[in-house]
Design goal:
alpha/beta; four-stranded antiparallel sheet; 10 strands; single chain; six-stranded mixed sheet
Length: 232
């Protein structure tokens, strides 16, 4: 289990996260929702060791202290904006997902990704910067898969995608769950994010205001009205 316990993050004098706790089981999708500035991205960054924090992040009891130990514990992070290397090819970006492994293991990981996402072979030698947004989203997901994660952190992977590409992406989130990967999903499309969730965590001003069954927050419009502080 991935456990986040009483995590605090400060940016200078700003208390970005205040005692955030959540848990993710293998094969479970936990969707994290909240208004802009609620602390969603910071939560994922704390889990993956990209920002320092108080409290504790652990996997099966082993403490995650930084990005290196997060990777060692099987945590992979698809950052907001996808974080791809636009001047490198699709194949090169995928290989970076398995960075630090033996060459034979990198090749095996990339081959596994290509079998799972065969569309990537169509763009194998193209620079990522020449691809569409939907194509880049698949490359970013493929790079995450190349890390062979036990827990996947996805920060707004659907940003800028058309409905068809978004559905394809969410189908891959379902597939991650089906193979036992625990997923923490931050997504701006509340209705679709709720549909894929096993559990929902709502953040507001760095604090958890709801943690439970998706049915407990009602439909997407009710969620927006009640928890996100915006008109439906």
């Amino acid at each position: 289990m991935l456990a986040v316990e009483d995590v605090d993050v400060w940016y200078g004098g700003v208390h970005a996260l205040a005692g955030v706790s959540l848990a993710v089981e293998p094969g479970q999708v936990v969707t994290v929702l909240g208004p802009n500035g609620a602390g969603k991205t910071t939560t994922l960054s704390a889990i993956s060791g990209l920002v320092g924090h108080g409290g504790r992040v652990s996997v099966d009891g082993g403490t995650v202290t930084d990005a290196v130990s997060a990777r060692r514990h099987g945590i992979a992070h698809l950052v907001q904006g996808r974080g791809l290397f636009r001047k490198l090819t699709v194949a090169q970006n995928l290989a970076l997902g398995a960075y630090g492994s033996k060459p034979s293991e990198v090749k095996a990981a990339v081959d596994d990704v290509a079998r799972r996402l065969p569309d990537l072979r169509l763009w194998w030698a193209r620079r990522v910067g020449t691809l569409s947004g939907g194509e880049q989203a698949l490359v970013a997901l493929g790079r995450l898969l190349a890390a062979r994660p036990r827990y996947a952190l996805l920060d707004e992977p659907g940003l800028g995608l058309d409905p068809r590409a978004l559905e394809r992406l969410m189908g891959e989130v379902d597939a991650l769950r089906d193979v036992g990967v625990g997923v923490v999903l931050v997504e701006q499309y509340a209705e679709r994010a709720l549909a894929v969730a096993d559990r929902v965590v709502v953040l507001d001003r760095g604090r958890v205001t709801y943690d439970g069954d998706p049915a407990g927050v009602g439909d997407a419009q009710a969620l927006v009205r009640t928890y996100l502080g915006a008109p439906a």
